[in-house]
Amino acid sequence: MRVVYIVMFFILGCVFGSFYNLLGLRIPEHESIIKPASHCDKCGHKLSWYEMIPIFSYLFLKGKCRNCKTRLSILYLFSEFFCGVLFAISFYSFDFSHNFAIALILSSTMILVTVSDLTYMTIPDRFIVIPSILVLLIKLIFEGPREFLFAILWGILSFLIMFMIMKFGELIFKKESLGGADVKLMFLAGVSLEPFLCLLVIIVASFIALPVSLLLLVKKKENIIPFGPFLTVGMLIIFFTKYSSQEIINFLLQK
Ligand SMILES: [Zn+2]
Question: What angle do CA 155, 159, 162 make, to 5 degrees?
Answer without folding.
Answer: 140
